[in-house]
Amino acid sequence: MNTKEHWEKIFATKLENEVSWFQTYPKTSVEFLEQFNLPLTANIIDIGGGNSHLVDVLLEKGYENIWVLDISINAIERAKKRLGEKADRIHWIVSDITDFKPEVQFDLWHDRAAFHFMTTEEKIYHYVSIAENSIKKGGYLVLGTFSEQGPEKCSGLEIKQYSEASMSARFEVSFERIKCIHEDHLTPFNTVQNFLFCSFKRK
Questions:
Q1: 22 — phi, psi (to 5°)?
Q2: I need a surface site. Which of 54, 164, 169, 180 has the fewest CB within 10 A?
Q3: Fold of the CATH domain 3-17+39-202
């Protein structure tokens, strides 16, 4: 089973509260967003955000140019169904992030738990390169991954854990680090996963 087939199966067979990453409200992501004071016309993209509720919050706050990218069409169809008519206000992209060719540059690139699935140097390099070329100078990048105290796998797939130093090193050529925090995510199964979130500004 390839990566796309894996995720299509997950989102076809599990309810949203049957996956470990589910959040009813993306508190940490929203707190980072609010620090940047972006205009409502800002271009914002959520990488791997297929069925995340971040898009709901962005709509509620009045943002007008929202993109959501996910490898799984099943994940995106779920989000569209949840949002109803409001889904028409979102730019939906079904793509592997490493195949992504953006049509615009972004003021904010958000990724909670997609980047850590890049486990080879080639994929990591490709992801970083796409982010560098896709984010405006002065724009922002927010990344959430499993920390070194977090799980070693997610949904049966290997992931790459990060420390503040190792994540910063990956993006230091084109980005200035703003801050990093650790977060304990309580899963729907009452287990705890330790995340590392870092924010960066495009040089």
A1: -60, 135
A2: 169
A3: Rossmann fold (3.40.50)
Q: Minimal CA–CA distance to 141: which of 127, 154, 155, 151?
A: 127
DSSP at 162 = B
DSSP 127: H
Residue 7 amino acid letter: W
CA torsion through residues 195, 45, 119, 121, sign: negative
Domain boundaries, the chain: 3-17+39-202
Provide mean pLDDT across the span 61-88. 97
| Strands 43-47 vs 157-158: parallel, antiparallel or unpaired | unpaired
Q: What is the mean pLDDT of residues 128-156?
A: 95
With H, G, I as helix, E, B as strand and everything else as coil, classify residue 20.
Answer: coil
Kindly state the average pLDDT of the residues 18-46: 93
Residue 158: closest CA among 184, 123, 197: 123
Instruction: Tell the residue number behind the tokens 């914002």, with chain if given.
Output: 44
Check pLDDT > 80 for residue 202: yes
Q: What is the pLDDT of residue 11?
A: 85
- What's the CA gap between 115 and 121, in Å, rounded? 12
Q: Is 197 exposed, middle or buried (0-12, 13-18, 19+ CB in 10 A)?
A: buried
Does this model's pTM top 0.85? Answer: yes
Average pLDDT of the residues in 64-92: 97
For the cut 80, the answer to whether the pLDDT of residue 66 exceeds it is yes
Tell me the β-bridge partners of 43: 65
